[in-house]
Amino acid sequence: MPTRVQRVKIGTIVLICAGLMAMPANTSAQGRFEISGSVGIAGSHDLGSEKATESGNGIPAGSPVTLFEATSSLERGPLFEGRIGWRLTRSLTAEGTFTIVRSHLRTSITNDFESAPATVATSRLMQYTAEGGLVWHLDGLRFAHRRVRPFVTGGGGYLRQLHDQATLVETGESAFAGGGLKIQLHETAPRPHRSFLKSLGLRVDARMNFTHGGFDIDEKAWRTYPTLSGGVYVCF
């Protein structure tokens, strides 16, 4: 049986292949290149907890003694996104996304064996994801004179986390699902007045993100956190 990570990767590949199969033969006429950049906020999420124990007195070994308990989490932080996309059909776009999140790793130490007061330690953390996915535009739901275009999106990719000026590095997997709006601000005139720039607008994304690995205490767990971002897109 494939693992959960393998199922996410297989699902992403299947979606991309389905989009390629749906692509019309005359791609040069309908293909459109899009780039966008956004800024936003990434929500906080837990990374699990762990107990530090040692064997107690006894023969051959006593009951484990808990020295302290550590609980870790990633705090909310700003994010920066860059995207490139290629329209496969009128409604379907293949898209690659690179995201940077600036956050802090927060660790709480509690239940100390010697009854020491609880302490909290924080350190800087940079998170990078490189992901591929598909964007499905819901053209039937356009509004505001068809200038506002809703969409849904999903995909997955690679996770990399750098702790405290890259003194420690961990990697893992990532996935996402969500949706948003594209708000068209400018569109070039139809033929014969053709232009290299096809359209310009604003983009808003709301996503639920899933990560596996990195600095997570439980290496088998998937963690979830929301992101909200907004920026500008340009189509050529």
Describe it.
The protein is mainly beta and 236 residues long. The chain has one domain: Porin, CATH 2.40.160.20. 10% of the residues lie in helices and 62% in strands. It is built from two helices and ten strands. It has an eight-stranded antiparallel barrel. A hairpin with an 8-residue loop joins strand 5 (92-110) and strand 6. It starts with a helix and ends with a strand. The relative contact order is 0.19. Residues 13-31 have low confidence and may be disordered.
The N- and C-terminal alpha carbons lie at a distance of: 43 Å
How many beta strands in the DSSP annotation? 10
Number of domains: 1
* Tally of helical segments: 2
- N-to-C SSE string, H for helix and E for strand: HHEEEEEEEEEE
CATH class: Mainly Beta
Note the beta-strand portion: over 45%
Going by CATH, the architecture would be Beta Barrel
> What is the helix fraction of residues, given as a range?
under 10%
Shape: elongated
Mean of residue pLDDT values: 82
CATH fold-level name: Porin
Low-pLDDT stretches: 13-31
Rg over CA atoms, rounded to whole Å, is 23 Å
Could you give the order of strands across the largest sheet?
1-4-5-6-7-8-9-10
Structural class: mainly beta
Q: Major sheet: size, sense and barrel closure?
A: 8 strands, antiparallel, barrel
